[in-house]
Amino acid sequence: MIIIALLIIVFITIYFFNFYNKKEAWTEPTTLFPMKWRILLEKNVNFYNSLSIDEKKYFEFEIQEFLANHKITGIDVNVDITDKLLVASSAVIPIFKFPDWKYTNLDEVLIYSDSFNENFETKGENRKILGMVGTGFMNGTMILSKPALHHGFSNQSDKKNTAIHEFIHLIDKMDGVIDGIPKVLLENQYSIPWFDLIDKKIDEIYKKRSDINPYGGTSRVEFFAVIGEYFFERPKLLSRKHPELYEILEQIFNQSMKNKNLVKKTISIGRNSPCPCSSGLKYKKCCAVIN
Fold first, then answer.
1. Would 215 be classed as within a structural domain?
2. Helix spans in 106-161 (H)
3. CA–CA distance from 55 to each of 2, 47, 159, 243 (Å)?
4. Which terms in the GO cellular component ontology are assigned (predicted)?
5. Please, what is the end-to-end C-alpha distance for the chain in angstroms?
6. Strand pairing partners for 142?
7. What pLDDT does 211 receive?
8. Helix, strand, coil percent values for the chain (each to nearest 5)
9. Integer Cα distance of 102 and 144 in angstroms
């Protein structure tokens, strides 16, 4: 019994040592946001383009903070800065209005070359998984398919974004369990109405009376992630077709999305073009020099 008690004490000590060390080791950005990164965000991230100048600066800070504290690793595939910015954007978008938020339950994002199966294989049969939040020995890890990551930001009409979907699962998991109720974001008085509304909408999916992705009908957990994708991808449509859902998602994410102008910029830059950073200088005298 003494040995067991000692082992428990050692385990608890190691756990809290690692926990507090991780908090203390959190890195905050100390450098300017690279101009080329800003151009990539403007080309690829509609949410970023909908923000005010000050909001964009905050978004950029959050991107840098995420990348400074989480590894992004390619598995049999090259990972470039565009991939990293898309992953970081997916993390920042759902928690954009929570300035103190930190993904303390995430260490690393693995980028796979394609969809994968339950054995994490990207070749062979039954490769239907586009992303997942790890559990068990994979705890602290997220896996994303690179094609799915890019598709989520290139398709503006399908109400799907795999990476945002997985980060919403991670938010759900912050209270210790993935159950469709993000207790860290959802005030208690909204919990019962939220569950009632989920059950109602899942029933509509089963009866084929809904435009919500059918995958959301598999469980409350998946419904929360699926409807979160819809909220950030097609908020105006969600507000029109599912006003109750839209309103409670505004409460959960603390964001009003329906009036945002979610557009992708087409940027053609020559040396004499106006610099996209809005400095008023020509590109050759601004970003081209800085980078």
1. no
2. 146-154
3. 56, 11, 24, 26
4. cytosol
5. 63
6. 109, 133
7. 96
8. 55, 10, 40
9. 20
If we measure between CA atoms, which residue out of 51, 40, 9, 18 comes closest to residue 260?
51
Enter the pTM of the model: 0.84
Write down the pLDDT at residue 30: 87
Extract the tokens encoding 177.
């369990």
The helix-helix angle for 81-92 and 53-69 (nearest 10°) equals 110
What length is written for the chain? Answer: 291
Euclidean distance between CA atoms 249 and 112, whole angstroms: 30
Strands 108-112, 131-133: parallel, antiparallel or unpaired by DSSP? unpaired
How many other C-beta atoms lie within 10 A of the C-beta of residue 184? Answer: 14
Cβ atoms within 10 Å of 93's Cβ, excluding its own: 24
What is the model's pLDDT at position 4?
Answer: 46
Which helix H or strand E contains 109, and what residues bound it?
Answer: strand 108-112
Residue 228 CB neighbour total at 10 angstroms: 25
Cβ(184)–Cβ(171) below 8 Å: yes
- Nearest residue to 34 (alpha-carbon basis) of 77, 71, 85: 85
Does residue 69 lie in a domain region? yes
Partners of 211 in beta bridges? none
Radius of gyration, alpha carbons of the chain: 21
In a domain, 289, yes or no: no
Under a CB-based contact definition with an 8 Å cutoff, are residues 246 and 260 in contact? no
| Structural domain count of the chain | 1
CB atoms within 10 A of CB 172: 24
The residue type of 129 is: I
Which CATH number characterizes residue 86's domain?
1.10.472.150
Phi, psi at 120, each rounded to 5° = 65, 30
Residue span of the structural domain in which 38 resides: 31-155
